[in-house]
Amino acid sequence: MPRPDHAQPPPPLPPDAVRVLTGPGRAELTEQRSRFLGFAIPAPDEETARSAVAALRRENHAAHHACSAWRLGTPPPPREYRHDDGEPAGTAGEPILAALRRADLTNALVVVVRYFGGVKLGTGGLARAYGSAAALALSNATAGDLPLGRVYQVEFPYALRHLVAAVVESRGGHPLTESYGVQIAWEIWLPHSGCRGFVEAIVQATAGAIVPREKTG
């Protein structure tokens, strides 16, 4: 006999927050007379990241290399980019990106500028130097949590205000906007962990009188 079908578990929810850079950091180290200047920069989007890289190239026009990596956006996994800027493949951009991954950061750019000191470091030496400069710059930067969630729209009579508020608060949410006319109209923000079953909870608590709508776009 065929085995009965089992209900599939719901897909995992995105996290309630991600770690982002909130302030820049800078570091410098010297390896075999080569100077490595590391810059950690908040970057909410690719345009900001590319502009920052270009600005550092102009400021350090005498440098031999300005290698970079960034992580942008929120889960699904952040978009990643790395650039070796003329260094042997994998010796610069990848270790910089690895430092960003270890810090578990997104919306973050790291640029490491190298002034060549006349002594070749080899691929291993280059990778260690670029990775170390990136990690030091990140350690000198400031970071914070960026809350993630969804927005719902809901309208309800004044008599149900306390009931709706209680459900929202129990799920870690809060109103973003409030309008008071014939009825109350709220836009409600909820962390991702509070979204699953929220609509059903409101419908059940109000005996079907209120059905929240998720705001899109």
Write a structural description:
This protein is of the alpha+beta class and 217 residues long. The protein has two domains: 17-145, 2-Layer Sandwich (Ribosomal Protein S5, domain 2); 149-214, 2-Layer Sandwich (Alpha-Beta Plaits). It is 29% helix and 35% strand. The protein contains six helices and twelve strands. The chain has helices at residues 46-59, 93-102, 122-139, 161-170, 192-195, 198-205, and strands spanning 17-23, 25-31, 34-42, 65-72, 79-83, 105-106, 108-115, 142-147, 149-156, 174-180, 184-191, 213-214. The strands form three sheets. A five-stranded antiparallel β-sheet has the order 2-3-7-4-5, with helices on both faces. A four-stranded antiparallel β-sheet has the order 10-11-9-12. It has a three-stranded mixed β-sheet with strand order 6-1-8. The chain is elongated. The chain starts with 16 loop residues before the first strand and ends with a strand.
Give a short overview.
With 217 residues, the chain is α+β, with helices and mostly antiparallel strands. Helices cover 29% and strands 35% of the residues.
Q: Termini distance?
A: 47 Å
Overall SS class: alpha+beta
- Looking at CATH, the homologous superfamily of the largest domain is Impact, N-terminal domain
> Any low-confidence stretches, pLDDT <50, length ≥5?
none
- Using the 3D structure, state the CATH architecture of the largest domain: 2-Layer Sandwich
Question: Count of helical segments?
Answer: 6
- Estimated radius of gyration: 24 Å
